[in-house]
Amino acid sequence: MPKSNAKPVKSHAGRARRPAEVLFTSANVERLEAKASLGAKFLRLLDKLPMRRVCEGGTVALKVHVGVGLSFTTIPPLFVRLLVEKIKAAGAKRVFVTDGSLTVNEATARGYTAEVLGAPVLGAAGVKDKFFYRHKIGYKTLKDIEIAGNIEDADALINLSHFKGHGDCGYGAACKNLAMGCITQKSRGDLHQLEGGLTWNPKLCIKCKKCVEACTRDAARWNKEQDRLEIFYHHCVYCRHCVLACPKDAFRISGGGFVPFQHGMALTAREVLRTFEPGRTLHINFLTQITVYCDCWGFSTPALIPDVGIVAAEDIVAVEKASLDLTRDGVPLPGSLPPGRKLVDGKHLFQRIHGKDPYVQIDQLEAVGLGTPNYQIKEIR
Ligand code: SF4
Ligand code: SF4
Questions:
Q1: % residues pLDDT > 90 (the chain)
Q2: Among residues 169, 353, 189, which one has the least CA distance to residue 266?
Q3: Which CATH number describes the domain made up of 20-193+258-379?
Q4: Phi then psi dihedrals of residue 62, to 5 deg
């Protein structure tokens, strides 16, 4: 695999390209009958995708996120089963459902079983997260990544993602399902190392903890074991109130790690997709039960906005951009925000919640050549 030295870009918005087709079906039920429901519309949407070209004759990896702990807003097993049946009908030699090796053990607790889904549920990197192929990346501290062996060994990939908010990325969906979900736990840690932007000078610090008190996001924390300041970037909105509260000018926080982290995710997603022949991957985002935080948080909060529907495309950039655009101006439902959370300025609802521009992910995906943010919606009714 080629080594990447691509640099992050600030924006590629507006670049003229041929629009990608994005299939969309609405969660709205226009008539009270089964064939007007989201389940039936999902089946009709799948019939419009090139399932035979993608799946026929091959081993198909169906990547989902099964959630962690008490989370329950992941894609319902029924929809996964419907998709498995379509994959089989499209002539796949075999199909398996997969998630990270350390989370897939929890699949049964949420109903993702072989009996329900009609396909085995496998850890992406084997039973112990030790089955992987190493790929060079060569971007800042991200020297390489360990791509899950069961993903790389498959002939085709259906990337089935739940769209929701995420403190580190602004949002999580198709890109995150690949970049965080198709690699080993060690590589996930390496990716997170790209976040950052804290420079703390212990010689100047008098340990008054005014920085911690100034943070309303619970992001500035005092590490008692190491007796030092640390920042939990998942919660940080880079407001710099902590910096301004410091009487000794003992630290700086730049937020400069956000774009490199998104770029590292895009490079990783590209490396995962490169293990498949062209035309053998599909991306499907469920814009249902959209929550503030990720399904890996360990519990679920109420839906942030009413269900929107399902989008699907061969182009991962287009499917992600369409998902963001469809939710950009959402108004939070009563009781859906974390207690005390106040919205900040931003171009998307998730930026107003997490302080991070989710469209940066789109820019980075486009910058590494994964597709186009220019799309045309084709609605399936
Ligand atoms: S920049 Fe703002 S959110 Fe981040 S740690 Fe400082 S005060 Fe907290
Ligand atoms: S406010 Fe400044 S001096 Fe006080 S603990 Fe924080 S970094 Fe140290």
A1: 78
A2: 169
A3: 3.40.50
A4: -105, 100
Please report where in the chains the tokens 């060569």 appear, as a residue: 138
User: Quick one: DSSP state of residue 333?
Assistant: P
The beta-strand segments (E) located in the chain are: 20-26, 59-63, 94-99, 121-123, 132-139, 142-148, 156-162, 164-166, 170-172, 198-200, 220-223, 228-231, 251-253, 281-287, 309-313, 375-379
Ligand number, closest to the Cα atom of 228: 2
Residue closest via CA to ligand 2's atom 1 equals 246
Atom of ligand 2 nearest to the CA of 214: 1
Task: Choose among 311, 297, 292: nearest CA to 358.
Answer: 292
Report domain extents, the chain.
Answer: 20-193+258-379, 198-253
Which atom of ligand 2 is nearest the CA belonging to 209? 5
Mean pLDDT of 300-324: 97
* pLDDT tens digits for range 249-259: 999 877 668 89
| CATH classification code of 198-253 | 3.30.70.20
